[in-house]
Amino acid sequence: MANIVLIQGHPDTASHLGHALEKAYAEGATEAGHEIRSIQVASLNFDTLRSREEWQNAAPADDIRQAQQAIAWADHIVLFYPLWLGSMPALVKAFLEQTLRPGFALDYSAGKNGFPRKLLSGKSARVVITMGMPALAYKWFYRAHSLKSLERNILRFCGIKPVHETLIGMVENVDEARRSQWIDQLKSLGSAGK
What are the structural domain ranges in the chain? Predict the structure, then answer.
């Protein structure tokens, strides 16, 4: 069984499809015996970083420190967010900048050739992105550029791998049958701890 942290990155606390997908994943994981913790980014109290000095040396806010504890505990991380302007919402990026800082995610003092030691090695991740456009268009026409950047330049840079993805497109005005398929898919992924 795995320790799994679910990070809900929708900036709106009202219920959206991403929240239903997170709930389905959690249900599947819990029923299968996995341990679950949840981080609701929209409910956290933290400022955006404004300098390299802050990123390297400022003490994280209490909510960020608690998020770091949940991530440190986890074997697997599942990040949910909607695609906004071709990328993650600004609140998710600010959360990642605050959370994945030196001393927690990276150790520059022990790195080689200017690259830091990856402190989150041994963890895996899944990124679940909902979007208004067809997922195939995002993946093939736009080449999933923001997802690739998240995987390569943020998650893997900290040692998190493998990173899997679930892209859910055309979410607006979807019928109940299609929505149920997505819910079932996430429940199955949760059950498998993937």
Answer: 3-20+34-172
Considering only CA atoms, give the Rg of the chain.
17
- What confidence tens digit (pLDDT) does each residue in 126-168 have? 999 999 999 999 998 889 999 999 999 999 999 999 999 999 9
Rounded CA separation 133/23 (Å): 23
Q: In what order do the strands lie in the sheet with 76-82?
A: 35-40, 3-8, 76-82, 124-130, 163-168
DSSP 91-147: HHHHHHHHHS-BTTTEEEEEEETTEEEETTTT-EEEEEEE-SS-HHIIIIISTTHHH
* In contact, 103 and 54? CB cutoff 8 Å: no
pTM > 0.90: yes
Q: Tell me the CATH number for domain 3-20+34-172.
A: 3.40.50.360
